[in-house]
Amino acid sequence: MSSTSDTGGGRRVGRPRATQRPDSGLSAREELLAAAAELFTTRGYAATTTRAVAERAGMRQATMYHYVAGKEDLLAALLESTVAPSLALAEKLLADGGRPAEDRLWELCRADVTLLCGGPYNLGALYVLPEVRAERFADFHRVRTALRSAYGELVAATGAGAALGADEARLRTDLVFGLIEGVILVHLSGPERAVGPFAAATADAALRIVGADREGRGPGAAVPGA
Amino acid sequence: MSSTSDTGGGRRVGRPRATQRPDSGLSAREELLAAAAELFTTRGYAATTTRAVAERAGMRQATMYHYVAGKEDLLAALLESTVAPSLALAEKLLADGGRPAEDRLWELCRADVTLLCGGPYNLGALYVLPEVRAERFADFHRVRTALRSAYGELVAATGAGAALGADEARLRTDLVFGLIEGVILVHLSGPERAVGPFAAATADAALRIVGADREGRGPGAAVPGA
DNA sequence: ATTATCTATAGATCTATAGATAATGC
DNA sequence: ATTATCTATAGATCTATAGATAATGC
Hints:
2 copies of one chain form a homodimer.
Chain A: H1 28-43, H2 50-56, H3 71-95, H4 101-118, H5 138-157, H6 159-162, H7 166-189, H8 195-210
Chain A binds a DNA duplex (26 and 26 nucleotides) through residues 3-4, 11-18, 28, 49-51, 59-63, 65-66, 70-71.
């Protein structure tokens, strides 16, 4: 066990912190990430100072540099943590040729919406940050592009998708992808909605965009509430 | 004519600018807004300095304060310029009871996508800025909320919408609204696409989300390219 | 006289580093 | 000895204001 990452039972090595707090169970780096997630999404990335992040994580500003290289480091880690699980699921679903593409697409959509809206902060809003276009975040963009391709393959494997023609299929894939990430904005203005039914409804809507019919397929009702 | 806003034919009052440029035809305030639009969307709001905006508009940093109260002023003006024309159109369409709701909803969707993606900058991306939640931007939020209500009324007036039940209709309205604003993100990652067909395709997709069928109705083909 | 602009700058940050300090570990 | 943290701060901003300046207008 590395002493840096574990949260340690009793006494800890090193000078004690200036302001003690009850043990959160998170490592110092995790606390920094949680603090950054909250501050970046509520106050904005550029508007958040290293001091604000460190202080919220319970340490002094300079101490932060013991764990991360700087603000960009935190942002990159947060972005990848959002998109990586989606891609993992997408690849699992792509490999599972046994199930109808409609069902797999539906499941991917629902999982992504759950991920984007389910957490305590609206991390998806970070996607739009202009600073994210920088070369520094190329890794994140690669993963996101791969995720979009997975959507494209599932759409094409769909009955309706196969009938569409390449251009139209690409267009509908983009629209589905746009819908899924658009829930970020919906979620921004009404975060009180229950995530479960909302995610299912969004997945239904995605299939309607593709033109695929999935009456009663897969988990959950096709149109909950109707 | 106010001397501040017109671009003036010949000689202009006041000390000449340090660096002269060919007359753009825009007033000083408009040049500041254009500069802000570009810089806010490409580098980020908080990351853009007043100096950068002013310099890009062809004046020195301090001169900017002659025209605007500060950065927030610029952001508020940009946000309202994006959403105000949408609301104006929405109200016109709501009043026009003669046309089928499906057609009117389609037109509103297409117009909004055109507005969001048609300009030289991706102003829609500014919606997501955390700093926009501040009280300072309440006006913008009021207009945006009114726009969403207009979407809701059109959805409900639709044949499919009327059959849905209040909760489900509200949900689908939110999904449509999410799709429209989601194109901001789609546009971010592929700004090269032609806006016209894309806007029409998005409007088609919106009707599919609602459950409304509009084969061959209204302007343009229902499924361009198919 | 009026106007639009300029230069200069005070005051308030913010980041990242240097070096000191207070724990545990051996 | 090693580690995690602290305090202090140099250097680099950035915003908003004060006051000077160079045009036109009358």
